[in-house]
Amino acid sequence: MSNTEKNRTKVDIYGQPYTIVGTESSGHIRLVASMVDETMRQISTKNPSLDINKLAVLTAVNAMNDYIKLKDEFERLEEELNRVKE
Q: Where are the beta strands (DSSP E) in the chain?
């Protein structure tokens, strides 16, 4: 599939159906949806009184926290690699 071809994938996240449109493969979209669903369920287990909106926001906050940590680690490793190359 080319990078510009859009793909529609039906997924279920926290009991709600969604159709996600993107250029990634259906398998990738299903994996992402599964990870979001799993994170929402983990947070809900620890905080059962959260409404769906707060649960979604906390899931997004967790995802961005993980992203920032990975980005920082990537940049650190990239700098280390550049030092080794010199």
A: 7-13, 16-22
Residue in 48, 44, 54, 10 with CA at minimum distance from that of residue 29: 10
Q: Give pTM, 2 decimals.
A: 0.83
DSSP 3-state assignment of 19? strand
Q: Are 52 and 68 in contact (CB under 8 A)?
A: no
pLDDT 10s digits, 8-55: 999 999 999 999 999 999 999 999 999 999 999 999 999 999 999 999
SS3 call for 36: helix
Tell me the C-alpha distance between 11 and 35, whole Å.
12
